[in-house]
């Protein structure tokens, strides 16, 4: 109807109120492809007359039988219209669902919940906030399109959700918890965490994301520890080299001093110096 109204008002946008009744009459009297009838005929059982349909009025010969037949006609028409609409909808459903797989949940299954802005305005204030939340358990299947979940009092909303807002919580091969399974045959926790650094197969669940983060943190800590140990080794090596150089220098000076004293006159001062040098060499472990 909007397209028809735009084509009639042209550039004079202020004349839409005067044109609207004519557009409405034309729309309501046009036969639709789905119902094969006009909206006016579906509602009242006949189409309104147009100037082309004007003719001399017939004589007054309407009776109650005609009214009864009109009622029966409207009932039959409504039944046919309903069947046509259902048939059209079935065709649309078949075309839209082509290649899709019907998703059925059972009571006890765990599912993710998609947080829509209309239903969860506080949780979707920002585009960067999560669009899904913790896996919740299915309590009841209302039908194939609606399920009742155990929200555990987390949200003040209805616990019934459409299947389009639910995703199966698939733990995949990461179902084992490292805290309850500290070790396993032919492997350990570190290897399992390191393996998570690779891109996992299947959907990324919240548990997988948490373990990937733990593996990444552990990997960074290992790199930091290795770098710290290397730095400590280098400092210790430099310290040992420096200490050895100092000891070597002290020994050299003591020996030179002892040689100088051996060439002396042998007076009391020289003897005292020799004793001091001997004590220094003994402290250094040199005889």
From TrEMBL:
Pfam families: SH3_Tf2-1. Signal peptide: none annotated. InterPro entries: RNaseH-like_sf, RNaseH_sf, SH3_Tf2-1. One of its GO terms (molecular function) is nucleic acid binding. Transmembrane segments: none annotated. It comes from Cucumis melo var. makuwa. Residues 108-167 form the Tf2-1-like SH3-like domain. This is Transposon Ty3-I Gag-Pol polyprotein. The lineage of its organism: Eukaryota, Viridiplantae, Streptophyta, Embryophyta, Tracheophyta.
């Amino acid at each position: 109807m909007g397209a028809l109204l735009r084509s009639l008002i042209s550039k004079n946008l202020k004349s839409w109120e005067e044109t609207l009744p004519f557009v409405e009459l034309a729309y309501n009297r046009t036969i639709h492809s789905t119902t094969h009838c006009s909206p006016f005929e579906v509602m009242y059982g006949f189409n309104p007359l147009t100037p082309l349909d004007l003719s001399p009025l017939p004589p007054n010969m309407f009776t109650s039988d005609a009214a009864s037949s009109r009622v029966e006609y409207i009932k039959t028409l409504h039944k046919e219209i309903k069947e046509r609409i259902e048939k059209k909808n079935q065709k649309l459903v078949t075309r839209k669902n082509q290649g899709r797989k019907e998703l059925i949940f059972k009571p006890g299954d765990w599912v993710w919940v998609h947080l829509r802005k209309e239903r969860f305005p506080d949780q979707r204030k920002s585009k960067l906030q999560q669009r899904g939340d913790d896996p919740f358990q299915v309590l009841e299947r209302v039908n194939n399109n609606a399920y009742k979940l155990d929200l555990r009092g987390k949200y003040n909303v209805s616990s019934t959700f459409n299947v389009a807002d639910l995703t199966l919580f698939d733990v995949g091969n990461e179902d084992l918890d490292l805290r309850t399974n500290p070790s396993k045959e032919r492997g350990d926790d570190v290897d399992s965490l390191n393996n998570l650094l690779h891109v996992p197969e299947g959907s990324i669940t919240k548990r997988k994301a948490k373990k990937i983060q733990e593996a990444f943190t552990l990997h960074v800590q290992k790199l930091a520890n290795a770098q710290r140990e290397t730095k400590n080794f280098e400092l210790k090596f430099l310290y040992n080299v420096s200490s050895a150089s100092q000891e070597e220098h002290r020994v050299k000076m003591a020996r030179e001093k002892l040689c100088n004293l051996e060439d002396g006159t042998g007076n009391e001062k020289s003897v005292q110096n020799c004793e001091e040098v001997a004590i220094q060499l003994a402290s250094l472990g040199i005889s």
